Amino acid sequence: MNGRSFGLKLCLDCQRICSRNETVCPRCGATVHARRPNSIERSWALTLTGALLYIPANVLPIMTVGQFGEGEPDTIMSGVIELVNHGMAPIAFLVFTASILVPLLKLLGMFWLLIAYHRKVEKDLSLKGKMRLYRLIVWVGRWSMLDVFIISLLTGVVQFGQLSYVSAGPAVWAFTAVVIFTMLAAMSFDPRLLWDAQHSSKGETV
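Below the sequence we write its predicted structure tokens.
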């Protein structure tokens, strides 16, 4: 049983409980739906777009680290190695985590949640685990632009004439798009649909 079976809806803007007949929230004026319209379709489209953009984000140069006027464009991975070689190991670790590890795990997590919705796995513990994963994806989203901020900071700070410099590459735009699309995918996904899918697979009223 859930709120929808009792004729209740939740306003996602102000968290007010609304009745079935209320299409507009009396408190904040937002449109109220029992579930986010086209949630699964939008999440699939945004997640797939983010996954496609993840390729150029890792293949194209993301920055150039140079000294004495010389430097070669680096991808994220080669840039991490270059930062280590220049004695910036902590920054290299942050770039690797924020640019490679976190986006990949977010994409895999969203794919898993979407596939889990279609499979309708009937395990309460597994379902609770999916909800924790969804909350983690949303929480991590706020830190996803960390390495873009780091590169921007390095570009402005590590400038000592011809001695040392850092410049951003085209992959920054692709990576920024990956971050935006994965955040939108998580925001578009309605986790309540996981519970609906489980209840419907058991023949329960949702």
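The chain has a mean pLDDT of 78.
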